[in-house]
Amino acid sequence: MSRAFIRRGALALSLLLAASGGARAVQPDEVLKDPAMEARARDISSGLRCLVCQNQSIDDSDAPLARDLRLIVRERLRAGDDDAQVQSYVVGRYGEYVLLRPVFALHTLLLWLTPVAVVALGLFGLWRLSRRRTDPAPQALSADERAQIAALTRRD
């Protein structure tokens, strides 16, 4: 095998891997004929969590439940619902956990404020630590200490 062949093979493999990284799980039979409506469906789907995969959107997941959710989104859009109604329908059916971006409400306040509280506590701790580590002012030597130093440094 020549080096050129190995390089071309490595290049082809890396291009194949790079191209497959952005692939979506939406199947061709799910795609709506109207491009504007399909774009709306993709936008809604990108904000909904796959309940099986948990940290993937239903647009990125190959799970059967994610496919069902994608079909529900498209079905609701075909029925004439706007984006908020579709999202509300899915949330009503599966709960707020299905949202990748949780709502800012009283019951999710702890979720939103915890990072702020952790950073504030960390900054407060650093401030306290810096205040505690101040070097005390040097004190003058006592008469006994000066006498001891003089005795030690006296040359005979």
Brief summary:
By secondary structure, this protein is an all-alpha fold.
Architecture overview:
The chain is mostly helical. It has a domain at about 5-105: Cytochrome C biogenesis protein (Helicase, Ruva Protein, domain 3), CATH 1.10.8. Helix content is about 60%, strand content about 0%. The chain has helices at about 5-20, 35-45, 65-80, 85-95, 110-130, 145-155. The longest helix is centred in the C-terminal third of the chain and has 24 residues, at about 110-130. The radius of gyration is 33 Å and the shape is elongated. The mean pLDDT is about 85.
Strands, helices and their partners?
Elements lengths: L2 H18 L14 H12 L17 H15 L4 H12 L14 H24 L10 H11 L3
Helix pairs in contact: 2-3, 3-4
Which structural class fits the helix and strand makeup? mainly alpha
Give the number of helices: 6
Helix content: 55-70%
Number of strands: 0
Query: What's the Cα radius of gyration?
Result: 33 Å
CATH architecture of one domain: Orthogonal Bundle
Mean pLDDT: 83
Based on Cα principal axes, name the global outline: elongated
Q: Report the portion of residues in β strands.
A: under 5%
Biggest sheet statistics: none
Output the CATH homologous superfamily of one domain: Cytochrome C biogenesis protein
